[in-house]
């Protein structure tokens, strides 16, 4: 009988924990949605901004993989259309798959973007860090943020909360159905952490002195 009571108690605790987790995920999803509403566009409808921020992702053999190349292709088009004047590529320069920032920079140059308008942030270790560093390290106050549609609401919400007048632009991806489904399912689970980061007001993992590279890149075009 004691084992049965213990089992019922554990099932009850598990059920309560599951409900609480569901509430947390739902609440954080509502917050992200409210922050991002009206600030997400497809490429053809995207507004202009001085800077386009490209969020890092995995690379392979020094080349962007599908998610990242999709983001970079959108940034290329925004610059060539005159809707952005400089690109901030933000990722992990010491990532497990390789140097995301170097890979992004070379990809953009190969696509015809002037190296002088590309600035790399090697310490954009997650979306929150990218947004906070963009404003405090690189002085970004208005920007377009490019990533895939499952991710872009959180990126916009975090950047806007950090103080950037940010609009998101959906990027495509030549990805498998499985990869798309996996990331779409995983994304809501990332939102509670985003809210926790904001509530804590934590510093990014790496805090750097002010860098005027982006301001100089923009000034060259004035």
UniProtKB/TrEMBL annotation:
Positions of the DUF218 domain: 51-166
Coiled-coil segments: none
Pfam families assigned to the protein according to its UniProt record, in alphabetical order: DUF218
GO cellular component, one term: plasma membrane
InterPro entries with a match to the protein in the record: Cell_Envelope_Assoc, DUF218
Domain of life, source organism: Bacteria
Protein name: DUF218 domain-containing protein
Organism: Rhodococcus oxybenzonivorans
């Amino acid at each position: 009988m004691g084992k049965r009571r213990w089992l019922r108690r554990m099932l009850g605790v598990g059920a309560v924990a599951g409900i609480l987790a569901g509430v947390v995920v739902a609440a954080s999803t509502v917050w992200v949605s409210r922050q991002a509403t009206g600030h997400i566009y497809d490429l053809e409808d995207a507004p202009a901004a001085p800077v386009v921020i490209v969020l890092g992702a995995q690379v392979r053999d020094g080349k962007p993989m599908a998610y990242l190349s999709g983001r970079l292709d959108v940034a290329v088009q925004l610059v060539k259309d005159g809707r952005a004047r400089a690109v901030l590529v933000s990722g992990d320069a010491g990532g497990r798959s390789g140097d995301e920032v170097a890979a992004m920079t070379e990809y953009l140059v190969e696509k015809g973007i002037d190296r002088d308008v590309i600035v790399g942030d090697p310490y954009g270790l997650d979306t929150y860090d990218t947004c906070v560093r963009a404003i405090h390290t690189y002085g970004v106050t208005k920007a377009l943020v490019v990533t895939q549609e499952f991710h872009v609401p959180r990126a916009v919400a975090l950047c806007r909360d950090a103080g950037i007048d940010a609009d998101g632009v959906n990027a495509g991806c030549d990805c498998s159905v499985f990869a798309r489904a996996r990331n779409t399912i995983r994304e809501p689970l990332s939102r509670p952490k985003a809210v926790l980061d904001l509530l804590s007001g934590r510093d990014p993992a790496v805090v750097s002195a002010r860098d005027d590279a982006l301001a100089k890149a923009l000034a060259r075009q004035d």
